[in-house]
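User: Here's a structure from my thesis project, written as structure tokens. My advisor, Dr. K., wants to see whether a designed sequence matches the one we expressed. Can you design one independently, without my sequence as a hint?
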């Protein structure tokens, strides 16, 4: 999935980055997942269990689904002190 030598990442650090994750770790980092599984702070929901399996499979195999490699980036205009919006050119 990644060229481990591209950024000069030490092998010891790399092994920690690629170790399997737990459902609690997924909840810590994924806001969308937290919204979908609000009641799973004590025990993981079926959705959370499936997501953890998919993430760990991707980490172990080095492959991710194509849909995970796509993103939409939207510019969100911010208001200036005078109430007008900043423009992005």
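Assistant: Designed independently from the structure alone:
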């Amino acid at each position: 999935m990644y060229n481990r030598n591209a950024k000069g990442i030490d092998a010891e650090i790399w092994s920690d980055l690629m170790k399997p994750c737990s459902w609690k770790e997924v909840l810590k980092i994924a806001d969308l997942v937290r919204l979908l599984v609000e009641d799973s702070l004590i025990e993981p929901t079926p959705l959370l269990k499936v997501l953890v399996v998919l993430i760990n499979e991707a980490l172990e195999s080095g492959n991710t689904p194509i849909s995970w490699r796509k993103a939409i980036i939207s510019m969100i205009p911010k208001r200036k002190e005078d109430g007008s919006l900043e423009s992005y050119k």
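When you compare it with your expressed construct, this may help: Residues 20-69 form one domain.
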